[in-house]
Write a structure and sequence with these properties.
Rossmann fold, 2 domains, 15 strands, 19% strand
Length: 470
């Protein structure tokens, strides 16, 4: 078995002696790296006016890291404009927010080409390459053009829209053809598989076979769903420990017996935060018995602060929170508590544990691991209730949650009222069903399933050496 080579847009190299990150992709890949070692390649996070085309190397905890800097012009075109202002809203079905610029699109492809040129000399013949997310869709095609014959898989962490949506991007056909350079394309849900296959068939004119594959010039590209999980048992243990912490107990004391609704995510227009505020206002308006009896805590970590749409979103949420508090607060009760910064993972785990309702209502999401962490954090004897958007990928495997349309403020308010009144027996039954599924499909299983599918196809020596069409 060869090395695992992971490529992601951003790579945080741990300092010497530092424990690797406890969140995100690092946790998902920890088991795979532990079994076979490997290389993690990507952007360092550093931007310089004229970044040298140099790859810096480091080795930490058995993993080799290789990172490169971006020039200011690359950061602007590749990251800010094409990735964030074009592809992010497009893949989340927000066409009204999509901004396209031909020069930025060309920079996006040029940066992917530079990634490939810097990665290729680091590769070994029997490596397995796993590329992550929408910033790097063309990377497989660029590697193939340079002669790479290794197995290459791609995982798309965010939603994948059908061709009717994707085709609004002028270079959509190029992106779809880029995916044909991969041996395996993974997405989060069956809904995303349907969108991907529709885009593949309509965007290339090729037939998608019943097994979810396409063949071009001897290469078979398969498409399948691999729903990402969390480290369920570990997070449950963390939440149980943190529930007794001073920070969590201060929160409980401050509530003075009131029920707690919690939401926690990155500040992003895909998360449905303004819609969530309006739903909570509808709850207080239509069910006045909840006034003074429930507090809504929203944690929204700042994100992409140099993008104007995110600045506007921050202002809107702050305005809505102020309006709700101005209309309903009493001297001893503030309905909405808004925290506009990131909180430590342990702190959030403790807060989830003591909350009565988890409110997770994105308008569109690839998976949404907050929903899974909320369920994992609960006391199984007296669990809280998850109110979940049906547009989150997690909804596909969580039918026992109270599923809502986040655009329907009254409908979400009805679900909140139902959750706050739900008897313990029903809460326990719903939680047990979801938790069993989380244990069965944890994060290590996700990476193992993807790599097994990627490496279990045709033998390496049978792979074509021809270059892929642009």
């Amino acid at each position: 078995m060869g090395r695992l080579v992971v490529v992601s847009n951003r790579v945080a190299v741990p300092r010497r002696g530092e424990v690797p990150s406890a969140g995100g992709l690092a946790v998902a890949l920890a088991d795979a790296f532990a079994r076979r070692g490997g290389l993690w390649f990507g952007w360092s996070g550093t931007v310089a006016p004229d970044a040298p085309d140099v790859v810096r190397r480091a080795r930490r905890s058995g993993v080799d890291y290789a990172v490169m800097d971006l020039a200011s012009s690359e950061y602007d075109g590749f990251y800010l404009r094409h990735s964030n202002a074009t592809l992010w809203p497009l893949f989340h079905f927000r066409l009204g927010l999509m901004q396209y610029d031909r020069a930025a699109s060309e920079t996006y492809r040029a940066v992917n080409r530079r990634f490939a040129e810097n990665l290729l000399p680091l590769l070994k013949r029997d490596d397995t390459i796993w590329v992550h997310d929408y910033q790097l869709i063309p990377l497989g095609a660029e590697l193939r053009r340079l002669g790479a014959r290794q197995r290459i898989g791609y995982f798309h962490h965010i939603p994948f829209p059908p061709w009717a949506v994707l085709s609004t991007l002028p270079c959509a056909g190029d992106l779809i053809r880029d995916l044909l350079s991969y041996d395996l394309v993974g997405v989060q849900t069956n809904r995303d598989v349907a969108g991907l296959q529709d885009a593949m068939a309509a965007g290339t004119g090729m037939r998608v076979r019943p097994d979810g594959s396409v063949r071009l010039r001897g290469r078979r590209t398969r498409m399948a769903a691999f729903p990402i999980g969390i480290a369920t048992a570990e997070f449950a243990d963390l939440a149980r420990e943190q529930a007794a912490s001073g920070e969590t107990q201060r929160l409980v004391t401050s509530l003075t017996g009131r029920s707690l609704i919690i939401g926690a995510e990155r500040l992003d227009y895909t998360k449905g935060l303004p819609e969530r505020m309006r739903a909570f206002a509808a709850l207080l308006k239509r069910w006045p018995e909840h006034r003074g009896a429930v507090t809504y805590l929203q944690v929204a970590a700042r994100s992409r602060e140099d993008v104007e749409s995110y600045k506007e979103l921050k202002r809107e949420i702050e305005r809505l929170a102020g309006t709700i508090n101005g209309e309903y607060a009493d001297a001893d009760w503030t309905p909405v508590r808004y925290v506009g910064r990131a909180l430590p993972r342990g702190t959030l785990a403790g807060y989830y544990r003591v909350s009565h309702v988890g409110l997770v209502t994105p308008v569109r999401d690839g998976m949404n691991l907050v929903a899974k962490e909320y369920v994992a954090a609960q006391d199984p004897e007296d669990p809280g209730v998850l109110v979940l958007s049906r547009f989150a990928g997690a909804a596909e495997s969580m039918p026992e949650a109270l599923l809502v349309n986040p655009l329907d403020a009254v409908g979400v308010a009805e679900a909140l009222d139902q959750a706050l009144r739900m008897p313990r027996g029903e809460r326990r039954a719903r939680h047990a069903a979801i938790f069993a599924r989380l244990i069965e499909r944890d994060v290590s299983g996700w990476s193992a399933d993807f790599l097994r599918a990627l490496e279990g196809d045709d033998p390496l020596e049978d792979r074509p050496a021809t270059r892929e069409a642009a």
